[in-house]
Amino acid sequence: MKAYKILGLAAVGALALSACTGGGGGATPEAGGGGEPVVDGTLNFALTRDPGMLFTPLNPSAVLSSVTPWAYESLVYFDTDGSTKGWLATEWEETPTSLHFKVRDDAVCADGTKLTAETIANNFRWIADPANSSTAINLVVPADAKIENDDTSVTITTTEPDPFRITAIGTMPIFCQAALDDPKSVATATNGTGLYAMTEAVTGDHYTFERRDDYAWGPEGAPTGATPGVPKTVVISIVENESTRANLLLSKELNLATVTGPDADRLEGKVDVYAQGKLLTGGILYSQAADQPTSDRDVRIALTKALNLDELMQVSSAGKGERAQRLAVANPQVCQYDAAGPNLPTTDVAEAEKMLDKAGWVKGSDGKRAKDGQKLDLEFAWQSKGAETASTAEMMAEQWAKIGVGVNHHGADYGAFIEEISKPGAASTLDTIMLSANFPVPSALMTYFTGETPPNGNNFMALNNPKFDELVAEANTHTGTEACAAWETAEAEMYKSADYVPFAMTATSSFSQGIEAYGIDEFYTAIILVK
Questions:
Q1: Long-range contacts for 183-190 (Cβ within 8 Å, ≥24 apart)?
Q2: Number of H helices, E strands in the chain
Q3: Less crowded by CB within 10 Å, the N or C end of the chain?
Q4: 3-class secondary-structure state, position 426
């Protein structure tokens, strides 16, 4: 599950960047039923793809946020109302430009060392240091943040305000000092304060965790290493095929997996629904790098008007979705509004043709559009995993072809896709990418839709909308409901300009058998094996 941690704390996946149909997440666990616990059992859990290297500050993979929670903890978590709850932090104070955490002193790392306030602070120093090229820089903590600590507390101060910064900073997995000193040591291993430690990693196949029987520092009422039913062993298998995951659940070879599409239908009533939620699963970014055709606002709007977003939503979600309303849809949804629906350009093929003609992109005798001898052929990158994604990309190409626009496809697996859009100069070679970014707070948008391009930032397509930037700056001066209202206005500007075009939001379900949710409040859950 992408936006929540399966075990320990149900926290926000602050780095939950997914390429269109990345696997599962954002779900709210259902209540358990009180079965007899299985003592020292093995829990079998399936992921849709390999998470990649396991050091979160260097890997934005959404799938990784289903792996790290077994071994790592964070400063806080959030309940269903979005209220902050303590984890490694016992007390906290926040303003739009500062966070102060008083931290617990009893958490022990998997390597036997004590977790200190200095190590916690060092996690954020590591991210903020540009020399480390962290994918979390400016997303979790800004490069210019001032990070201080004493023996019992950590203080982070920023120059720019952000009313939701505690969501990203507070829920970042905390690594132990040896991991920060040598990130390669945790590329295929773990070193945190969580209930489990990794004992085996077979990339592309499975990851095995063993319970730390001495674990006893969770929130009051949380399970410990001695709680009956807490699995002794957790095996996370990579099972890419939806039908195979469904079959393994039905045969009781899996305890937990996310399944979508027709295979989810055949599970209904036969296994339990462990968690449900919604995620943004379809969206496109247009490059605004200089000299790119899509740097012209009218060209972006015309290309969007040529698309039937309702049809794309149906194809991308296998008929299970709905039109996207906003960017921040992952639970806990701090803000709720529909900024996309009223503001995205509506389908109007005739108007799209007129706008392209006016912009100088006219059809030749072959029916293809060109300007000053340059054909309007879009370099289009998308993640190749999943038939729905490929079908959506092909449908876009077909709809653009009807107005004389060509497409060169750059379909690639997740790792190659991320590498292509993250490399320096990508916005000058790609015209559009299919990308979905899932967050619980809208301020997380800034790292992808403003600022510097890679390698100095994560503004992949060099978006440059001064009005949006002004509205963001205004939104960040507010808190609470006022901040949400101001962010709705900022997002509306982005959609009107077709900087980013989200078109699909899909319900996700995680199915289970032989487990129950062990909760200390409405939102914190751990997994208990039951007979």
A1: 183/55, 183/57, 183/58, 186/54, 186/55, 187/53, 187/54, 187/55, 188/53, 188/54, 189/54, 190/54, 190/68, 190/70, 190/71, 190/72, 190/110
A2: 13, 25
A3: C
A4: helix
Strand segments, DSSP code E, in 267-371 are: 272-286, 321-322, 362-363, 369-371
pLDDT digit string, tens, across residues 58-101: 997 878 988 999 999 999 987 766 678 899 999 999 988 999 99
Alpha helices by DSSP H, listed for 164-241, are 165-170, 177-181
Instruction: Give the separation between CA 201 and CA 181, rounded to whole angstroms.
Output: 21
Query: Among residues 410, 405, 422, 423, which one has the least CA distance to residue 380?
Result: 410
Q: Kind and range of the H or E element at 489?
A: helix 480-496
On the question of pLDDT at 310 being above 80, the answer is yes
Listed in sequence order, the residues at least 6 apart from 87 whose beta carbon sits closer than 8 Å to its beta carbon are 9, 11, 73, 74, 75, 76, 77, 218, 219
**Calpha distance 100→93 (Å, rounded):** 5
Give the number of other CB atoms < 10 A from CB of residue 268: 10
**What tokens does 293 get?**
């055709």
Alpha-carbon gap, residue 193 to 71, rounded angstroms: 6
In terms of Cα–Cα distance, which of 508, 470, 463, 513 is closest to 489? 470
Contact 511, 250 (CB under 8 A): no
Question: Could you give the maximum distance between any two Cα atoms of the chain, in Å?
Answer: 76
